[in-house]
Design a protein that fits this description.
single chain, Rossmann fold, mainly beta, about 15% helix
Length: about 160
């Protein structure tokens, strides 16, 4: 079973991830949430998503995961996590996943380098133009976006037409 942890401070990321995965009809995923690392400690996480507003970094060493998805600004703190690999997101060209443009009700999300998904697939460098809810902060929105569903889940046959 794939276990996904969301470490956030009531930003709505976990609810949005859960809704996005349910809408995509994905089974075999367990979503765990916590406002502090202690809530996720002791779990074997395939993916840990860290929101921009996450607090409690002193306890980060208690979390073990295969992949951590975290804001680029938190990169230096990632060394405290027990993770096989780290994937950063944010506006910097150094981030693995960037928000390359935001115009009206659309956002362009760019994958700057190849990534291995939690199911073992390789995602090539790419850009996706996605609908974006006006007035939202783009960084917390990025985690439950359609791009992140590709990162978390195995594709279904009809997903090819949606990419």
């Amino acid at each position: 079973m794939v276990q996904i942890g969301v470490w956030e401070r009531e930003e709505g990321v976990a609810g949005a991830v859960e809704a996005a995965l349910a809408a995509a009809g994905r089974a075999g995923l367990r979503l765990l949430t916590g406002a502090h690392p202690a809530a996720l400690a002791g779990e074997a996480l395939s993916l840990l998503t860290v929101s921009p507003g996450a607090v409690g970094w002193a306890g980060a060493g208690a979390i073990a995961c295969r992949t951590v998805l975290l804001p680029g600004s938190a990169g230096p703190l990632a060394r405290h996590l027990k993770a096989d690999r780290a994937v950063s997101y944010g506006p910097s060209p150094k981030d693995s996943i960037t928000l390359s443009s935001l115009e009206g009700d659309q956002i362009c999300v760019a994958l700057q380098r190849e990534l291995v998904t939690v199911t073992g697939r390789v995602l090539e460098r790419q850009e996706l133009v996605l609908p974006f809810p006006t007035g939202r902060d783009p960084l917390p929105w990025l985690v439950p976006s359609r791009f992140m569903r590709k990162f978390i889940c195995r594709p279904r046959l009809n997903d090819v037409s949606r990419q």
